[in-house]
Fold this sequence. Notes:
Blueprint: H1 23-35, E1 50-54, E2 57-60, E3 65-68, H2 81-93, H3 103-113, E4 120-126, H4 129-144, E5 148-152, H5 161-164, E6 180-183, H6 196-213, E7 218-223, H7 240-249, E8 253-257, E9 282-285, E10 296-301, H8 302-309, H9 322-337, H10 340-357, E11 365-370, E12 375-382, E13 387-388, H11 390-402, E14 405-406, E15 408-410, E16 416-419, H12 430-443
Amino acid sequence: MATRSxxxxxxxxxAEHAEGLDAATRQLTDKRSKVLGESxxxxxxxxxxxxxxxxxxxWDAAGNKYLDVYNNVASIGHCHPAVIEAxxxxxxxxxxxxxxxxxxxxxxxxxxxxxxPDAIDRxxxxxxxxxxxxxxxxxxRAYSGGTGIxxxxxxxxxxxxxxxxxxxxxxxGQPLAATTRLVSPPDAYRVNxxxxxxxxxxxxxxxxDDMKAHGIKxxxxxxxxxxxxxxxxxxxxxxxxxxxxxxxxxxxxxxADEVQPGFGRTGDAFWGxxxxxxxxxxxxxxxxxxxxxxxxxxxxxxHVLAAFSDDIPYFNTFGGNPVAMAAxxxxxxxxxxxxxxxxxxxxxxxxxAELLKLMDRHDSIGDVxxxxxxxxxxxxxxxxxxxxxxxLALDLTEKLRDHHVLTxxxxxxxxxxxxxxxxxxxxxxxxxxxxxxxKSLTELGR
Length: 446
């Protein structure tokens, strides 16, 4: 049986597309297949050969300029000069591990923790979001004495053994851990419930009860607060509180995976979880905190972390190294000095308004939703039935690529375009993106 994946196998280049490539591109794809593992995937039926980036823009080998509406890892913009300078200066002085004293990790941690609720008062560092979530699961299990982890139906939390076991978005070829349970996503567009928060809390309780029935003790609920892989589900604000209350009532902890919604992206708050007025027990971050430099973090309530750290030493060789901390500190400074959280809120609201106008022109648009510069654009065959249109979504990403706009799809049906540009995205870019969507849907007859 073929494996299914929304984040790897959709919007991807396949061998049958090779015949339509120009000679130079075909040479590169052939070389990749010979020297890289078969697990890798390229975006698009006609892959893009990128050679340069600046801010929200990318350029290919032929000199064509693209609008990047997908890459959140370069959170404040591709090749931001502040990050380049900070990394360059620190690299010329020292780069080593955290078993020596160094001011950078301490100074950065103080600044970072100042952005979180007071109860979150400890930090540990790794190199990737996978490592951060891996450690978070270990801490959750140490604190609760349980092993069971609940995630949303299409969640993606990493590629380590522990995190791939709680990442259904990796596809049916990647087995979930026996201690993992999936909860239906809090999709306000498709769930007919008078109180989405209460509905979602009940869904979590059902999975906790199922764990008990199978002799599994509940450890925690791990979620990206904007439910990105589930199709970008940001609203209504505050709906997560009842779910977190259920988690705590059952002896578990809430782990907020902030790799995607954190660092001002939603505009409404610095952290995605803060939009919902909740205080997580653990917070995980990833490479966007360093604008692509390998750095990640685990932020924690001290008494929760103590259940793990009082007994188990933890050492991540280059997690929190001075160069990574220099990059992360530069990102934090830029977000503050350039007002990127407010920028995301204002520009994101204008973009959302323009995207909503497209619904009057194209019946294939079922829903447009988002927070700040994080928007889900859902395609359907019929608005009344809300039947997902995955084929259209994939064709639309290809058309957008032809109009030099780069994005991809998400959601359990693969029918939601995930519009998540670097925070350098400007109001002037809205016309390019919205115009390309309008033209592409018109060209597709939808």
